[in-house]
Amino acid sequence: MPFSVYITAMLFDLHVHTTLSPCSQLRLDQILSQASERGLDGVCITDHNTMEIRNYVPEGILGNGLRVIFGMEYSTSGGDFLIFGPFEDLPPGLPARILLKHVDRTGGVAIAAHPFRSQRPTDETLIKNEMCRIVEGVNGRNAHHENASVLDWQKKYNVAQVGGSDAHSLDELGSAHTTFTTPIYTRTDLVNALKQGAFLQTIHSSIAA
Ligand SMILES: [Zn+2]
Ligand SMILES: [Zn+2]
C-alpha cells in the first residue's frame, strides 16, 4: 500500500438566500435536496437581515450528510456583510462600524459580501482599518469586473478571500464555493475555520467566463 495523506476538502456555499429573503425564489427544500448534487458538503443560509431559517430546519449535519449552517447577510450603508455567530436577536440597521465591533466582541466573524458591487459597495476604510479581514473574492452573481476588483484589495490589504453563490434561485446554487481544509459540522466549526484561515483562497480567475 503506498503511503498517502488524506487532506480534508470540504466544499461550502457560504452565501445562499431562501424565500425568507423577499428577493429570493430559492426554496429551502430545493437547497436541501440539490446541494449535494452540486458537489457541496455544506450550505450557509444567509437571508437578508434575518436568521428565521432556524424555525424551519435544524442546524448542523442532516440525515443526507449535508451540513446546514445559519448566518445572515446584514445590510449597512457601508456594505453588506455575511455574519456568523450568535446573531439571532441582532436588530437590523446598525452602522457597519458598530456591527463589525459587535461581531468581533461576541466571537463571530464577518465577510464583506460583493465588496465592489456598484450598489452599496464595501466602505474601503473598514478594510483598511482591519475591521473586516475576509472578503468575497468570488460572488456568483457579480459581474466579471466586480470580482476582479477584489484582487486590488488582496495586494493592498492582504485580505482573505472566500466564494459564495449568492443564490436567489436554484440554478445559481453552488455557482461559487469555498473549500475548507478542516472538517465543519457546526456554526462554531465554521466560525473557527474562517478565523483561522482554514480554507483555500477563492481568487477570481481572469480566464473564467
Ligand atoms: Zn437578495
Ligand atoms: Zn446575498
Describe this structure in words.
With 209 residues, the protein is of the alpha/beta class. It has one domain (10-196): Metal-dependent hydrolases (TIM Barrel), CATH 3.20.20. The chain contains 6 helices and 10 strands. The chain has helices at residues 28-34, 96-105, 124-128, 144-148, 150-157, 187-196, and strands spanning 10-16, 42-45, 60-61, 67-70, 72-76, 79-84, 109-112, 134-139, 160-164, 178-180. The protein has a 5-stranded mixed β-sheet with strand order 3-4-2-1-10, with helices on one face. Strands 5-6-7-8-9 form a 5-stranded mixed β-sheet. β3 and β4 (67-70) form a beta hairpin. The radius of gyration is 16 Å and the shape is globular. The model has no long low-confidence stretch (mean pLDDT 94). The site of one zinc ion has 5 residues, from loops.
Summarize the topology.
Layout: E1 10-16, H1 28-34, E2 42-45, E3 60-61, E4 67-70, E5 72-76, E6 79-84, H2 96-105, E7 109-112, H3 124-128, E8 134-139, H4 144-148, H5 150-157, E9 160-164, E10 178-180, H6 187-196
Parallel strand pairs: 1-2, 2-4, 7-8, 8-9
Antiparallel strand pairs: 1-10, 3-4, 5-6, 6-7
Bound molecules: zinc ion (2 copies).
Q: What general form does the structure show?
A: globular
Chain-averaged pLDDT: 94
Low-confidence blocks of residues: none
The CATH topology comes to: TIM Barrel
CATH architecture: Alpha-Beta Barrel
What ions, cofactors and ligands are bound? zinc ion
* Tally of domains: 1
Relative strand content:
15-25%
Keywords:
binds zinc ion, 22% strand, alpha/beta, five-stranded mixed beta sheet, TIM Barrel, single chain, 209 residues
